[in-house]
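Hi, here's the filled form for the chain we discussed.

Project: internal
Contact: R.S.
Residues: 433
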Amino acid sequence: MKIYRYPSVAAKKRLDTIVNRCVDFKARDIQVVKRILTDVRKNKDRALIDYVNRFDAPNLPISSLQVTKEEIKAARCQVNRGFIRSLNKAATQIEEFHRHQVEKSWFTADAGGTLLGQLVRPVNAAGIYVPGGKGGETPLVSSVLMGCIPAKIAGVKNICITTPPTRTGEVNPHLLIAAQRAGVEKIYKAGSAWGIAALAYGTETVPRVDVIAGPGNIYVTLAKKMVSGSVGIDMIAGPSEILIIADTTANPAYITADLLSQAEHDPLSSAMLITTSPELARAVSDGLIGKTEELPRKAIVEASLKTYGALMVVPDLATAFELANHIAPEHLELHVEEPLRYLGCIQNAGAVFFGPHTPEAVGDYVAGPNHVLPTAGCARFASALSVNHFIKKTSVLHYTEEALKRDGPDVIRLAGIEGLSAHAMAVKVRVKK
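And the returned structure, exactly as it came back:
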């Protein structure tokens, strides 16, 4: 990877390329997804199974769209104890973290006769989309936990999963056991845009939900964007990204590994180092060359680093944090001396990993915080998937007659300014003598 010195024209140009990277939908993709959504909305199961047969499992009948209890039971015999131990540890720590996010209803009353408050209630139904992962060969069990557990803790009564089946019409047993550990047994064999459509509109087999959460490919992302408004969604997530800030104390081998861990996701992923040390930048550059050759996803890594990777040398850490807040990365790692000292410098980031022994990968799996994070600069205004995505808040108001007489004249006056005479009348009819 090329090393840039900031500030410079070349460095600013590279920075602009990374910052302006966003989820881009082609006109053809929009038309295709729109057609799929309309088809499933109108024809329900018939359209859903047609897409499943065409793109995933050619021989899967409608009657097998939902995973059976027998399939879940059989899955337990197909996973080993080591997986169960790791799964339980991850689930337990994710549960513990997300319990801190639970909000309670609140009310306040004053002597003047008003009662105000807010009701916090979970949505009735949530759908979690789980990508298939290479035809089921690499099941994304972490996506099951990260999506289902916050919904469960929020109190959602009806939670279901949609995920693409294998060619033989099955769901990977590791994914089924993860779903069971998360407390979800309604699992449907439908992926891509048609899976999202089924959740958004409902079919004879798949129930309609109130909120859809979970990552996916460009068609899943576009489908979520299009159904947003009919249902709630977590976010429009783009390709993964990591930004590492490092000083002279950093270990180049750690940084190299962490950059590669994001670059292997997708050719559009971004992996970037900002450091005060030219020597560190050179060491990481050399390390990337050697380590990339060892990776099975070498072609993806090379494309990612070439297009959206950067090694940038800055004059001081203040400049590094200024750039980090401008980029607003999904993942921010701090490989600096006494990293917690810099907590107050961070304004925009999806998740922050402090110190050399906190690789982003622990956040993906077992640490506890959610790994569904805002990308492409959206950390400027968005947050990680959380319990809050599965609740709704209802305002509560109660006025006594005396309280309305007190506030009524102000309502009448303000309504008059806005030209809404019926609003004013609704108060006048109650307060006149």
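Let me know if anything looks off before we file it.
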